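Quick question about two entries, pasted in order.
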Amino acid sequence: MKTRLRILYLASEVAPFVKNGRIAEIASALPKALFEMGHDIRVMMPKYGTISERKYTLREVIRLKEIPIQTGDHQFVVNAKSAFLPETKVQVYFLDYKPYFDKLDSAADPKTGQETSENAMRYILFSRAVMETSKLLHWEPQLIFCNDWPTALIPWLVKNEYRDDPFFAKCVTLLSIHDFKRQGIFPEAVLKQAGLQKSDPAYGELVHNGRANLLKAGILNAHLITASGGTYLAQLWKNPDLAYGLYDVLRHRKDQVTEVMDGIDYSVWNPETDVHLVETYSGSQLKGKAANKRSVLEQLALDAKNGPLVGVFFDGSESKGGEAMLSAMDRVLGLNLNLVLVFADDTIKRRGVDKLRKSHAGKLAVVVGPDAALTHRLIAACDLTIAGDCSEQQMAQQMIHLHYGTIPLVNKIGCVLESLGESGEGKCRSFTFEGCEKKALLEAVKNALHCVEDEKNWLKLIKKAMKFDFCWKNTAEKYIKLLQRLDNPKKK
């Protein structure tokens, strides 16, 4: 591939236009990093009704008005407008079909959290509109970068419906999977409704266990498949359940599956420049971290004599892991520490939390829906944090915590750094636990508290953690290296 690539980046949501999860942050930061590397990158997403055209200065594009899209027996008319990612020159195209996109800005039913048949038609239409819009731009992408099931049909379309179209002849596709649980599973009848016929030789790639599965189609047809970073992929090959029914499909493409670590935005998350902190600090000057801890302990009415401050940050995406951790907190509070439970909002079930707070007054604080300033100060103040789930949001939190010198205790499945402490010294070892069982979690906390007592080596560990580089440029460079390898005829 040439040094400067033409990249079409697709996502169901992009911050700041729409943000319901971590994918929106990635779909904003990664294109920006790729653009800054010199690549010609353009982003496409649906035009949801919640997006303010005035605020983001969306403009009409004459050649992209009233685009006819044939889907099944129906012809839809799609319009596209464009804007730039704020404070960048990255162009974003918003594909608009109001009956499908005007009401919802999420890939799931907001009441049930499950996919609906309407969502199938919504993103199948979006996928076909992406292909036709690209042609109208007269801009031939060398790479189409897809994210999760809402865009996973694109690789299938490229290899099947558009296989003889010279416009896409030199195009490769990449599917980045951020959530294996969400696969775009629908009744098989949806495929016929969308014009995907059983007579097509590749129809079977769209179906899994008697139901339509768009993620499966993407996995089988993308030139390259990536999973979000950490150790999730390594664990997945050992534990098929982590693929949520698609293990054999992934194994069939194992040579094309790899893992890429995402990044964090250092313009937002940097203890040396963070305006929200009581006092900034760095790895070479940690006095400010202690100042933030004193301030937070006072604000939360916690006694410093109780020991290290341990935080548990619930981002709202937790399932069994979050509930299991809550059930273990009573035993954890029996140790020499202060504990703060931080809930992103008030929707998570906090059974037993009020009872815990009463029985451990002065040792336990509960924070619900903190603003940005308090969130930053809490991260800076904590000595340790605990992460039970392996969601992408949790992995991003781990990267942020490490950069602030706050050491995460993590579930081995999906942790950013599975063995942070293994290259430590003295007692500074073993910062992982298996699953979220009470005994395993308790032992991990005990081991970490012993490490904090080893002051000399604890400081070494903090400084080591703060040196890790999770900038988005590293992520972008890894993707480009993978693509260059893919383009080598010997590697095809």
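Here is the second entry:
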Amino acid sequence: MDISKQFRDAKLELSKVIFPTKGQVKQAYLAVIVVVTIIATFLALVDLTMSAIMSAILG
């Protein structure tokens, strides 16, 4: 294979890529932060509840 053909093909493929805008990146970042916060809060509440139940059973 010719190395110049590889570079041309790579350049062609990169021209097809649609990169996100700054606003889209910010929106996705905020969505991830919100979802992670909700899941972490839920897991903390489940852990607290399970811990209380185990303490009541064993205590």
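Reply: Residues 22-58 form the longest helix (37 residues). The chain is about 85% helix and 0% strand. Hope that helps.
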